[in-house]
Amino acid sequence: MQITGSAVSLTVEDVAASAAFLEQHFGFAEQMAADGFASLGREDAGLNVVYLKRGNDVLPEGFRDQHAAGLILAFVVTDLVGEEARLRAEGVEITMPLREEPWGEKLFQVTDPNGVIVQLVEWAQPQQ
Q1: Residue 74 CB partners (closer than 8 Å, separation 6+)
Q2: Which own/partner pairs from 94-103 qualify as long-range (CB within 8 Å, at least 24 positions apart)?
Q3: 19-74: pLDDT as tens digits
């Protein structure tokens, strides 16, 4: 098997709102779109983010009305402090403030208009 790409698909109520959030604040670009569907990517992300409208019949019947809940869309970045400052300046609400975990992860979170959690991460040295 050869994997030629990767994507994560999230079911949301308002596809356009989530797509615009990733485009405006995280530099993603729309690569494909149709009614109830948008696929966004950026060259350095390593995956596409796909938004599907709740109820879309491409989803298995038992999953069509579920919302992208209980997951975190995480991006590893450099200059985490700078990214937090940039997002604040853009008016994005920081829904979990910058923190450092004992296992060496620095992170903060924002939430998109559909409630999808976007986490930015930078790896630090583990605390002793």
Answers
A1: 107, 118, 119, 120, 121
A2: 100/124, 100/127, 102/126, 102/127
A3: 999 999 999 999 999 989 999 999 999 899 999 988 777 767 777 677 666 789 99
Residue 106 structure tokens: 């620095």
Of 15, 17, 11, which is closest to residue 57 (Cα–Cα)?
Answer: 11
What is the SS3 assignment for 114? coil
Q: Indicate the length of the chain as a whole number.
A: 128
* Residue in the block written with tokens 């402090």: 81
* Total-model pTM: 0.86
Percentage of residues of the chain with pLDDT beyond 70: 89
